[in-house]
Specification:
It is built from 29 helices and 21 strands. By secondary structure, the chain is an alpha/beta fold. The protein has an 8-stranded mixed sheet with strand order 4-3-5-2-6-7-1-8, sandwiched between helices. It has a 6-stranded parallel sheet with strand order 9-16-13-10-12-11, sandwiched between helices. The chain has a 5-stranded mixed β-barrel with strand order 17-18-19-21-20. α4 packs across α6, α10 crosses α11 and α16 crosses α18. The longest helix has 21 residues. The chain binds one DNA strand of 9 nucleotides through α7, α13, β14, β15 and α24. This is RNA helicase.
DNA sequence: GCGGATATC
């Protein structure tokens, strides 16, 4: 690239001079690609470009360039299906650039991806293919990293969440001439919401073209969703279908159902290792603990067999893979398989992985896939307002995706540990979209900011349960983000600026009034990153001891603040995080988030304040938390457990909780349902604070009768007496000083059915 | 006794 010489082009030399906006032909484009000069950039094309172009020509999507341009010319919205290896993600956006000529029109072409890593790597690849440097004509935009140059970048890869955020400031998405949504079959929350917005926007912006790209064959659903006219057959959005290019994978089923899928998976690994030709194995399990346990068992089994007879079996490297592993640990999946023991059978590598290996990470060299048919999936129960992770059967689409992992480099085999009958008749076609499995409080706030008036009747691809939306609206009303007409309040507008859950956003916004915005900013940042506490299977004792040293007795929120501050104190010491069993990666990430949130606070003129007394500080923090998390309070039950407010659900403190003893009243960040109902990240509170800082929620006439209500009634009585005793003058003064405080802490009520 | 995966101005 360095040796490429600059040339001066007169308009006659512009390879795209004869191109008519959105009227180009495949022949014209082919010709421009084959030229001497870069069609988009005043420079000669490099040798590397030509070499890559030869490879690009082999991609299945290339053979359909003509068909693509015909469809693109005639339609505003196109649905495209292309399996792995079709080249759609890298080629289609380039095709669009030749038609849209965004560099001449002052527009951009956007292509969204569900994941950051994929966004970066595909942008890099396409920059190479177009013979430009990344971040110039071709760039990407992900959180914390904007690799674009305004005025120069005309092809932008971005995460779906990023485009959704952009839509909040520019609902017309006016910078874009074409928007391509990729990997739509994954049905992430952001993709689903974007589909709704774009469908709507397509009616207002007739010049905006939209391409929906999906890997699986559920295209008809999207064709129907984006159909023009009123549901007549002829009005379906047109479909472009591109074949994939992978190697064949032979699929095997069990004859009978397996009782223990972990055990069956391990047997399958050993069976392959003994009987099948060389090639790596990928075994899908559901979680960290299961995976570590399986790896341990597998090693023991192989060691046992090798001890008995070293010639009976080759060495087997067992590598665990899940997202919370550090990058160097994840790198191990790319190590070569172990060499054969002296004169014995060849060695083999087996990767035991969660779903990361199904979508996010591709591992070359896998020849055998073992699919027990399960994964952990998020489930939301709006009735009890709990998101939980449940081991559930995967969908057919998922099973096919898993099988495909065996055929990336050569023909492979997939062993499904369930019967063909189960596959055909029991498995769902597609995994349920995230929008049906999530708490939508955040999404509803975003939609309100986007100007969607009727959230229940929003045109979802799949509409969530009305109760889920009601729960979200209820929370937002209580928080004061929405008024009685479900309009965004000024507070709600501020909240929507933060990339945070509504409770957290509210806490952060009001924290300045509690003189602890410095601290809440840190706590909120820590709650926005993966867990900081590291607890390796081999060092649980030392890890727990280290955590105990960092814990603050009053609550886990304060402990998070403490860890962050101690980390910054020792940031020069490279081993501090390691010796204290905390994740440096999470802490750096928290620092990043903190910087970003601080910038938003500055913009909203929310001051960063603190107080010098540690006692006051710890109280202030927990009072501020109540103004956001008043619905997440629990009271200690006679049996030793806790009962949640209003719902009266029996929960236990999560084992990771660092509270000193079992305080009567606690506030918690999350309710999780794993082996039993737990509350996690818990702090002790004084019950009078509830009446003081969330008075409208703690209107006891709305509480169901029971032990919790009785306990609250006693507290309320004492609170009233105390309030009465406070001199009237002083009270007035306080109210006058902070008039906004009441508005923030005393939200609107909403009609709900409990 | 203890976390699937992903994302965010």
């Amino acid at each position: 690239m360095e040796s490429a010489e600059y040339i001066s082009l007169s308009s006659d030399d512009d390879p795209l001079a004869a191109f008519i906006h959105r009227r180009v032909t495949a022949a014209q484009v082919q010709h421009a690609m084959d030229g001497i000069n870069n069609p988009f950039f005043n420079r000669k094309l490099s040798q590397q470009y030509k070499k890559i172009l030869l490879a690009r020509r082999q991609l299945p999507v290339y053979a359909q360039m003509h068909e693509f341009y015909e469809l693109f010319k005639r339609n505003q919205i196109i649905v495209m299906v292309g399996e792995t290896g079709s080249g759609k993600t890298t080629q289609i956006p380039q095709f669009v650039c030749f038609a849209d000529l965004p560099h001449k029109k002052g527009k951009m072409v956007a292509c969204t991806q569900p994941r950051r890593v994929a966004t970066m790597s595909v942008a890099r690849r396409v920059a190479d293919e177009m013979d430009v440097s990344l971040g110039k004509q071709v760039g990407y935009s992900i959180r914390f990293e904007d690799m674009t140059q305004p005025g120069t970048t005309f092809l932008k890869y971005m995460t779906d969440g990023m485009l959704l955020r952009e839509a909040m400031t520019d609902p017309e998405l006016s910078r874009y001439s074409t928007i391509i949504l990729d990997e739509v079959h994954e049905r992430t929350l952001a993709t689903d919401i974007l589909m709704g917005l774009l469908k709507n926007l397509s009616r207002r912006r007739r010049d905006l073209k939209i391409i929906i790209m999906s890997a699986t064959l559920d295209a008809l659903k999207f064709q129907k969703y984006f159909s023009t006219g009123e549901g007549a057959q002829g009005s379906l959005a047109p479909l472009l279908k591109v074949p994939g290019r992978t190697h064949p994978v032979e699929v095997f089923y069990t004859k009978e159902a397996e009782l223990d899928y972990v055990e069956a998976g391990l047997r399958a690994v050993l069976m392959i290792h003994r009987a099948e030709p060389p090639g790596d194995i990928l075994l899908f399990l559901t979680g960290e603990e299961e995976i570590e346990g399986a790896c341990k068992k597998l090693k023991e089994e192989v060691d046992f067999l090798l001890n008995a007879d070293p010639r009976s079996i080759g060495p087997l490297a067992c590598i665990p893979l899940y997202s919370t592993l550090s990058p160097p640990q994840q790198q191990k999946i790319f190590d070569p398989p172990p060499p054969p023991s002296r004169g014995g059978p060849p060695g083999r590598k087996v990767i035991v992985s969660t779903n990361v290996a199904e979508t996010s990470l591709t591992i070359d060299g896998i020849v055998y896939v073992i699919d027990p048919g399960y994964s952990k999936q998020k489930v939301y129960n709006p009735r009890i307002r709990v998101e939980s992770l449940l081991v559930s059967p995967i969908s057919k689409a998922s099973a096919q995706q898993r099988a495909g992992r065996a055929g990336r480099t050569r023909p492979g085999k997939c062993f499904r540990l369930y019967t063909e009958d189960v596959f055909m008749n029991d498995l769902e076609e597609q995994t349920h979209p995230e929008v049906l499995r999530s708490n939508l409080a955040n999404t509803v706030l975003e939609l309100a900011k986007l100007g969607v008036r009727d959230l229940v009747r929003f045109d979802y691809v799949d509409a969530p349960a009305p109760e889920t939306i009601m729960r979200a609206l209820e929370l937002l009303h209580y928080l004061g983000a929405l008024d009685n007409q479900s309009n965004l309040t000024p507070l709600g507008k501020k909240m929507s600026q933060f990339p945070l859950d509504p409770q957290m956003a509210k806490t952060l916004i009001v924290s300045a009034e509690f003189k602890c915005s410095e601290e809440i900013l840190t706590i909120v940042s820590m709650l926005s990153v993966p867990p900081v506490w590291v607890r390796p299977v081999t060092a649980r004792g030392p890890a727990d001891a280290a955590k105990a040293r960092l814990d603050i007795p009053d609550g886990d929120h304060l402990s998070l603040l403490n860890v962050y501050d101690r980390f910054l104190e020792h940031i020069e010491e490279k081993t501090w995080a390691w010796t204290n069993f905390v994740s440096a990666r999470s802490l750096y990430q928290a620092r990043n988030v903190r910087t970003q949130l601080k910038a938003i606070m500055d913009r909203l003129k929310i001051p960063l304040v603190s107080t010098s007394s540690e006692h006051d500080r710890n109280d202030n923090i927990r009072k501020a938390l109540i103004s956001g998390y008043f619905m997440q309070v629990a009271h200690r039950d006679k049996g030793g457990g806790y009962l949640t407010m209003k719902d009266n659900q029996l929960v236990a403190l999560h084992p990771s909780c660092g509270l000193d003893g079992t305080p009567d009243w606690v506030i918690f960040n999350e309710f999780v349902l794993t082996t039993q109902p737990y509350i996690r990240t818990v702090s002790a509170i004084e019950p009078e604070w509830l009446f003081k800082h969330a008075p409208s929620y703690f209107d006891l006439s709305t509480f169901p009768n029971g032990a919790t209500k009785n306990a609250l009634e006693i507290v309320e009585e004492q609170f009233k007496i105390k309030e009465e005793a406070e001199p009237k003058e002083q009270k007035k003064k306080r109210n006058r000083k902070k008039p906004q405080k009441k508005a923030a802490g005393d939200p609107q009520k909403v009609e709900t059915q409990d």
